[in-house]
Structures are given as C-alpha cells and as structure tokens.
Amino acid sequence: MVKKKNKPEVKNRKLIAFTNPKSRVSEQFRTLRTNIHFTVPGGKVRSLVVTSASHLEGKSTTSSNLAIVFAQEGKRVLLIDADMRKPTMHQTFKISNSKGLSNVLVRRFSLKMAIQASGIENLDLLPSGPIPPNPAELLGSSNMDLLFESALDTYDMIIFDSPPVLSVTDSVILANKCEGTILVLNSGKTERAHALKAKDAITASTKTRLLGTVLNNVQVEKDFNYAQYYTRAPNEK
Predict the structure, then answer these.
(1) What is the 3-state secondary structure (H, E, C) of the chain?
(2) Residue 186 forms beta bridges with which residues?
(3) Which CATH superfamily is 45-216 part of?
(4) CB 220 within 8 Å of CB 76
(5) What's the rounded Cα separation, in Å, for the pair 119 and 7?
(6) Max CA separation in the chain (angstroms)
(7) Among residues 86, 78, 92, which one has the least CA distance to residue 13?
(8) Is the pTM of this model over 0.85?
(9) Residue 2 and residue 116: Cα distance in Å, rounded?
(10) pLDDT tens digits, the chain, 237 residues: what are they?
C-alpha cells in the first residue's frame, strides 16, 4: 500500500462519498456496494469494470465514489484509470498523470512505482499515464495480465474506470479479465437502444458477470430532488 496523505488537497464535489459521506447520494453509493456483495455468489468480488454506453454518463464519478465506499468498508482498494483515451482520474483527485497504467504496460515503470496515494484511507490510485497510440492492444497484452496478478496480491478490490463500451473495445477486453461489470447510464441522456446495445455488448462478448446498472440523474419527488444512483439487476423488470 502507498502511504496515505492526511486528506485530499481538493474538495471535489465529484468525490461526494468522501466530502459529504452523510448525504443521500453517498448513501446510494453504499447501497450500490451492498448490492454488489449480494449479487456475487459468496459476496466476494475482487475486480470490477465500470463502463457506460456513451461519453458523459457519469462512469468516472461512479467508479471513484464506488472505490471510496469500498475503502471505507475497510477493503484495500486500487482504482485504475483504464480510459487511456480520455482519462479523468488525475483531474478528479488532483494527482500527476506523468506516469501510470500506460507506462506500466510498456514496462517503463513497475506497478509499485506508478501507484499514487489518494489521501483517502485504504484507497490507492493508478492514473492512465500518457495516452498511448494502441490502448486496446496494451489492455489485451500479457503485461496487463501480469499487472492484474500483481495488484491482486496486494489489494482486496481492483476497480477499473474504462471507456464507453459502444465506442471502443477496451471495456470488453477488461471485462473478460474481471469478475463483474457495472454499466452506468444517464436517465436524461442515454437512449434506450444504446442502453440495450451496451448490455448486449457486455453479456454476449465477455465472460464477466453484468452485476447491474447505475442510473444517474433520476428526477424524483420534489422533497427528494437530488441526483440519485441505484442499481438494477440485468434481468430485473
């Protein structure tokens, strides 16, 4: 584990599970964590991919806060920015992106050298690193398998923030390496056809278990007017 700082230097509203743990939205992330436990046989899952149908649906915010609530549960968590096309983790956590996943996959740095502290207890970060010309090839390489095995030796949970599944093959490649996948949708943006196509891309092309969906920006009753997150099992009506 990387030695933690006292606190993150940034008060980022996107990290609401840390900055405002008593909020209703933070509680929804804890509900998501609980649902994941109950969805997986034995309640044990050690590797997750978080993806979306398209861009700007909230996958990175979801993966960050999900990593935080698992860390708050006492698990040693590594959050990996596997979106080596449009990475955002370094901006969210205000860390350097000069080295990260891409450097490790081409063996310029070891995993231990590339991991950074989040400032949140039990949570470490692996940013994307410099954008490579061949993200999909790197994610499907034997070096990625070695990275995965090494991370599982140290951490209880690995969460990948991956690109939208309908845009590139990266998420499908990662999903085949992980125990579970979460699909993030935006209630005011995602078209039904795209949501179904994204689900099919995951279930038909991978060996992973689609644990459910996270629906962002649900407009609820006036007394509960906040961005709500919740999960639904893939076959639930």
Answers:
(1) CCCCCCCCCCCCHHHHHHHCCCCHHHHHHHHHHHHHHHHCHHHCCCEEEEEECCCCCCHHHHHHHHHHHHHHCCCCEEEEECCCCCCCHHHHHCCCCCCCHHHHHCCCCCHHHHCEECCCCCEEEECCCCCCCCHHHHHCCHHHHHHHHHHHHHCCEEEEECCCCCCCCHHHHHHCCCCEEEEEEECCCCCHHHHHHHHHHHHHHCCCEEEEEEEECCCCCHHHCCCCCCEECCCCC
(2) 216
(3) P-loop containing nucleotide triphosphate hydrolases (3.40.50.300)
(4) no
(5) 5
(6) 53
(7) 92
(8) yes
(9) 7
(10) 554 444 444 456 689 999 999 999 999 999 999 999 888 777 689 999 999 998 888 999 999 999 999 999 999 999 999 999 999 999 999 999 999 999 999 999 999 999 999 999 999 999 999 999 999 999 999 999 999 999 999 999 999 999 999 999 999 999 999 999 999 998 877 888 999 999 999 988 888 899 989 988 776 555 444 444 444 444 443
Give the amino acid at 6.
Answer: N
Can you tell me the distance from the alpha carbon of 192 to that of 187, in angstroms, rounded to the nearest whole number? 10
Considering only CA atoms, which of 204, 226, 205, 201 is closest in space to residue 216?
226
The answer to whether 156 and 41 are in contact (CB under 8 A) is no
- Close Cβ partners of 101 (under 8 Å, ≥ 6 residues apart): 80, 81, 82, 84, 114, 126, 127, 128, 129, 147
CA pair distance 18, 217, nearest whole angstrom: 19
In DSSP terms, which residues pair with 166 in a beta bridge? none
In this structure, the number of other CB atoms found within 10 A of the CB of residue 77 comes to 25
Amino acid identity, position 153: D
Residue 134 corresponds to which amino acid? N
